[in-house]
Design goal:
Structural class: mainly alpha
Order of helices and strands: HHHH
Distance between the termini: 45 Å
Radius of gyration: 28 Å
Shape: elongated
Largest sheet: none
Number of strands: 0
Helix content: over 70%
Strand content: under 5%
Amino acid sequence: MSEFEAEVKKAEKELEQGLVPVNDPFGTEGGSDEFLGELKMQAQEYGQKIQDAAAKARDLASEKFTQAGDKIKELSAKDPKELVEDAKEFARQKPGQTILISAAVGLVLGLILRGGRK
């Protein structure tokens, strides 16, 4: 059980403990129990939606992590000269993207190096 699922279970238990009959001073006791029941149902629905979203996020992250690992293995198997040739070919085919990538790398390196001087 993940940490997230444990927290959801803990919240559900606390919610169930908090759902006790309330003494209504105005004599409309039946409505408050119904209201608390509706709140419990909504909380369970939201808990399920959160669990579903977390499962989707976990699956997506796992998929992307696997893709990145495969790409790293592919790049590490290539010869450095072959990588340079691939980069040159990319620059010939897409000069605009090459300029934007170079500018972004320069900006990041500049921020890193300038930050080290402070």
